[in-house]
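User: Structure tokens for this complex, please. No commentary.
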Amino acid sequence: MSAVITASGLSKQYKATLALDKVNFQIEPGRIVGLIGPNGAGKTTALKAILGLTDFSGDLNVLGFDPRKQRDKLMGEVCFIADVAVLPRWIRVSEVVDFVAHVHPRFNRAKCEAFLARTKLQPAQRVRQMSKGMIVQLHLALVMAIDARLLILDEPTLGLDILYRKQFYQSLLEDYFDENKTIIVTTHQVEEVEHILTDLMFIRDGKIVLDADMDAIGERFIEVMVNADKADAARSLKPLDERQVFGKSIFLFDGVSRAQLESLGETRRPSVSDLFVATMKGTYA
Amino acid sequence: MKTSTTNTLFWLVKREFWEHRGGLFWAPVITGGVFLLLNLMGIVTGEVLGAGHGFNLAFGGSQNNMNLLVKALDKQSMDTVGAGLDLVMYSPSMIISIVMGFVVFFYCLGALYDDRRDRSILFWKSLPVSDAATVLSKVIAATVVAPFIAVVVGTVTGILMLMMFALTLSLHGVGVWHLLTLSHPLQVMLNLVGSIPLYLLWALPTVGWLMLCSAWARSKPFLWAVVLPVAIGVAIGWFNLLGTLNVSNSWYWREVLGRVLLSVFPGGWLTQVSHIGGDGPAELLSSLGVMHTYAAIGSLNLWIGVAAAVAMLAGAIWFRRWRDDS
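Assistant:
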């Protein structure tokens, strides 16, 4: 199956800043891609370009469509949740379900109602009477009832409590995701998505600084806990990062052989957040 | 589920109605209600004052002057009475249409701006709906749905008002039901409904301009929509004063500013029709009938306005597509 998204030389210039700088990437179907980056790195701009919400230069192909010229067709196959609380505040649950049912050809009303039945949402309830968590439940019920090939989530759980956040990703995995669907998610709550991601993309200053699947990342990046006596030996291997825990040093290495590192101490797979912090060092300096 | 273009458009218009139920539906209904209430208060005041002075309403009394009067009416005065009653039926529609003008004005101004401000545009844009269809649905809501509701509510209010007067008079033994048969409620209704297409065409330049500002302005669309044309008018006046420019000031204010800002108020097209008015209510009425007012269709002014509106709405669709600020 061909790629869901192919970007080559994708650039976006806002007045003074270059939000995307000749970015190249490719996303295959059946993946869950985490697009992770510091504030202002260009995450949202990249998503907006994919969704045809903003103009850009370079080539971008999403599901065979050019988002600039064929946006209306594209949106039949793409869904997105752009952070919480973008549902119109005046609308009622029954109205929004009715509306989407009649304008979206791939919407399954029965499915949506089944999802809604699991929540406390009432048909006559207006969005303005809901908590942030409930708004997301409604939005997710709508989106999961649409048989789209690509789902884009831009900070979908911002400001939600842990119960809603866990439930959000759990629903996505259990009731929505399959090998024909692709999900792209940006979030700052890296710990919560890292176990569901299949691919990781780090973006910094408009450039993709890391683009790999999780298996490759496990091969490439290794964390070693080193006793003080071997610390200098570890440092000579040029670690990405070093931090101290309980009198030991934890080093993060990129592309050093596992056998070599095992001789220094206990190795393990780094968490995405540690990897992120190490990669983004000096971003705000 | 079936989603043809017209079906989508229908649901988009319905969506507009849901969102603006207050302005599109309740505003005319409440205006009509208040109108009826004021009339009722007037009747009660008349009754109370009349009774207090031992005076039994203008027409009443044991002599039943009104009955005698009705009997004495000849053909021409019957027409006059009928026309007068028709005018009474029109009166609530006039008030309601002014209210509707304000509603449509502010509706258009917010139509493509409010959802950018509260970012719900990101939800609407996540659906497979073209920006052209979105803008078109809002134009339909402003130029067809709003006047249609206003006409229906206006007609119902007019009929209720007539009934109210009839009932009051019949309490005084006046057989006004007969008098009421002289009025032409169907004709009134037809004239009002018939004026909707005229309203659509006439209001388009204002709707187009307001929606253009609504789609374009990053903030304060009202200020842009109003200040820009007024500033141009002032500038023209100033250049005229200096004698460097020869554009008629009054022409600008009437034909440009008036058309881009005030044409949402119904009846403006009457300026394009000759011989409005006449002697007595019957002639006035016939000059206001659709048969006569459709002469406005032949005016260049109206069609220039429509052409300008099409251009401005195309601009609004473009900005709706590419404005990237939410």
